[in-house]
């Protein structure tokens, strides 16, 4: 009997609580029949990302025909200070990676497999070069597209951009050069090439 | 005595001189011969000059020929002298002699090449999506040539089709452009995929051009 009373009492309290809760939170239209509705507009604006990248204007290499495997080239960092991933590329078609007009030595660009470099005589050595761009360390890249050396002559025959890869935000990656050449030079030679890098926000 | 001392007073002498004067005037034929004779020095001089030039040419050509032909002879002579005189010469200072084979320090060369690249660092800083309320309003370009740069830079923005949209002033290091007007206002509202070319110069002269790089951006004109 007392159990039934207690159950009734508890159910009564439960119903009362639910009723009060409904009155306060559940149905304001009913609770405050004379109130007004209100809405808030949230305006968000996002600035465009600023592309910020730096590269060396001059990259140099030296060839010592007297020592096999002693060719050396600048290891240059492409530094991105962008707060977003940036894609690095070079335009194809031969206008973005080519000999400088002011270069004192103007060898003909070849692909490495086109000549038997070790057997070249003086005239051929002094007029032939295969120069290519190479990524130093693939782990420095967010996504690497250029896995082999990109040769000057190869790029000249390309249409569209040659994508090197994408850099993570605020990171850098090193690139260098690879050369193939003859070994017969009657005098020291100096040549220079121009590269026009292209940067864009990466997908 | 006086007559002997002063001949000018002798009338006979005066008469003789007057007789001689007409005979000193050349006759017509003689005048012709005299004119012919006056050309002789000229012809002589001309002949001399021609002869001199021929002689000088002959000497020059001969000298060149002899110089070329004597090269081998000289080299042969030197070689013969060396072979016939194989004595060890004294050398006062031998500090330049080092132990071992010829060596060059590859590490030094690598550092030099890397430093050369690092010193020439150039910067490309621009908004990826400049916005213009209309083609006559300023847009937010956010172009910068930071103080770390060693070069001047100028930014030229072109559309995909190569139509020039904007050319910045030449920026010295530590100069920037937050916003600016389009230099070519002949553009309808819309979104334009553009290339922003950063051209670098070592001085304020066009001839000091070093190179370029570019950023792909989208320009929005409302």
Overall description:
The complex is a heterodimer of chains A (203) and B (222). With 203 residues, chain A is of the alpha+beta class. Chain A has two domains: 30 residues; 149 residues, no CATH class. In chain A, 19% of the residues lie in helices and 31% in strands. In chain A, the strands form four sheets. In chain A, strands 1, 4, 7, 8, 10 and 12 form a six-stranded mixed sheet that branches. Chain A has a four-stranded antiparallel sheet with strand order 9-11-5-14, with no helix packed on it. Chain A has a two-stranded antiparallel ribbon with strand order 2-3. The radius of gyration of chain A is 35 Å and the shape is elongated. Chain A starts with a helix and ends with a strand. The relative contact order of chain A is 0.23. Chain B has 222 residues and is of the alpha+beta class. Among the domains of chain B are: 38 residues; 101 residues, Immunoglobulin-like (Sandwich), CATH 2.60.40. Helices cover 40% and strands 27% of the residues of chain B. Chain B is built from four helices and eight strands. In chain B, the strands form two sheets. Chain B has a five-stranded mixed sheet with strand order 2-8-7-4-5, with no helix packed on it. A two-stranded antiparallel sheet of chain B has the order 3-6. The mean pLDDT of chain B is 82. Classes of the chains: A alpha+beta (203), B alpha+beta (222).
Strand content of chain A: 25-35%
Number of helices of chain B: 4
Structural class of chain A: alpha+beta
Proportion of helical residues of chain B: 40-55%
Average predicted confidence as pLDDT of chain A: 85
Order of helices and strands of chain B: HHHHEEEEEEEE
Using the alpha-carbon principal axes, give the shape of chain B: elongated
How many strand elements of chain A? 14
Question: Biggest chain pair contact, residues each?
Answer: A-B, 33 and 36 residues
Mean of all residue-level pLDDT scores of chain B: 82
Oligomer: heterodimer
Kindly estimate the percentage of residues of chain B that lie in beta strands according to DSSP. 25-35%
Q: What structural category do the secondary elements of chain B indicate?
A: alpha+beta
Q: pLDDT under 50 segments of chain A (min length 5)?
A: 27-32
The H/E string of chain A reads HHEEEEEEEHEEEHEEEE
């Amino acid at each position: 009997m007392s159990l039934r009373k207690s159950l009734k009492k508890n159910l009564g309290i439960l119903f009362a609580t639910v009723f009060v809760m409904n009155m306060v939170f559940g149905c304001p239209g009913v609770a405050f029949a004379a109130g007004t509705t209100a809405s808030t507009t949230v305006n968000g604006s996002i600035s465009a990302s600023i592309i910020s990248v730096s590269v060396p204007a001059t990259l140099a290499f030296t060839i010592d025909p007297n020592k096999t495997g002693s060719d050396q080239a600048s290891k240059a960092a492409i530094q991105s200070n962008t707060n977003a991933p940036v894609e690095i590329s070079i335009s194809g078609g031969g206008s973005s990676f080519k000999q400088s007009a002011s270069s004192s030595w103007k060898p003909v660009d070849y692909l490495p497999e086109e000549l038997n470099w070790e057997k070249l005589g003086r005239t051929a050595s002094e007029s032939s070069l295969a120069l290519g761009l190479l990524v130093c360390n693939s782990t420095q890249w967010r996504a690497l597209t250029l896995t082999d050396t990109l040769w000057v002559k190869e790029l000249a025959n390309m249409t569209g951009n040659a994508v090197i890869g994408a850099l993570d935000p605020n990171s850098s990656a090193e690139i260098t050069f690879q050369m193939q050449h003859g070994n017969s030079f009657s005098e020291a030679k100096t040549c220079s090439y121009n590269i026009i890098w292209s940067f864009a926000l990466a997908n | 005595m006086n007559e002997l001392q002063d001949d000018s007073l002798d009338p006979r002498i005066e008469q003789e001189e007057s007789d001689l004067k007409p005979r000193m005037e050349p006759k017509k034929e003689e005048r012709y011969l005299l004119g012919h004779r006056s050309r002789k020095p000229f012809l002589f001089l001309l002949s001399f000059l021609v002869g001199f030039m021929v002689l000088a040419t002959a000497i020059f050509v001969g000298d060149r020929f002899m110089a070329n032909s004597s090269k081998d002879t000289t080299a042969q002579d030197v070689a013969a002298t060396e072979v016939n005189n194989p004595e060890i010469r004294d050398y006062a200072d031998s500090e330049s002699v080092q132990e071992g084979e010829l060596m060059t320090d590859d590490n030094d060369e690598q550092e030099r090449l890397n430093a050369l690249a690092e010193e020439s660092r150039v910067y490309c800083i621009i908004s990826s999506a400049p916005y213009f309320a209309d083609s006559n309003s300023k847009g937010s370009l956010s172009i910068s040539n930071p103080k770390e740069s060693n070069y001047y830079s100028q930014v030229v923005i072109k559309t995909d089709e190569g139509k020039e949209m904007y050319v910045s002033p030449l920026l010295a290091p530590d100069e920037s452009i937050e916003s600016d007007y389009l230099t070519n206002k002949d553009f309808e509202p819309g979104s334009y995929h553009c290339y922003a070319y950063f051209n670098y110069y070592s001085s304020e002269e066009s001839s000091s051009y070093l190179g370029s790089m570019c950023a792909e951006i989208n320009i929005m004109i409302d």
